[in-house]
Amino acid sequence: MTAEVDDGLWSAIGDPTRRRILDLLLVEGHGTATSLSQRMPVTRQAVAKHLTVLDRVGLVRGSPAGREKRYQVDERQFERAVRQLAEVGSAWDARLNRIKRIAEAIQRTQED
């Protein structure tokens, strides 16, 4: 892997509710805790807490919108997360291929 994996970023993305929030923001372009909570099975307060986590790791950015904040995905940070995921996936593919070759070699020696 060429880039260092950001554990905080992946911890934030690891939560299914936060992934759903990211999905909604990517589709709709922006949203507030109130507007997002109307599309989810959690409270506005829970959405606000999840948005705080996503904001802390840089995946979303909030800007004042009346009494709330309007959030949108930080595309640069999101692209960084996608690149990291691709790199981690490639590394694991390589590891699994090595394990497969070793297992096949062991099986061949046992058959002989």
Structural account:
By secondary structure, the chain is mainly alpha-helical. The protein has one domain (7-111): Arc Repressor Mutant, subunit A. 67% of the residues lie in helices and 11% in strands. The protein is built from 5 helices and 2 strands. The protein has helices at 7-13, 16-28, 33-37, 44-56, 75-111; strands at 60-65, 68-73. It has a two-stranded antiparallel sheet. The longest helix has 37 residues, at 75-111. It is elongated. The model has no long low-confidence stretch (mean pLDDT 91).
How is this structure best summarized?
By secondary structure, this protein is mainly alpha-helical. It is built from five helices and two strands, in the order H-H-H-H-E-E-H. It has a single domain, classed as Arc Repressor Mutant, subunit A (Orthogonal Bundle).
Counting DSSP H or I runs of 4 or more residues, the number of helices is 5
Parts with pLDDT < 50 across at least 5 consecutive residues:
none
Distance between the termini: 38 Å
Q: In CATH terms, what is the fold-level topology?
A: Arc Repressor Mutant, subunit A
Number of domains: 1
Strand order of the largest sheet: 1-2
CATH class: Mainly Alpha
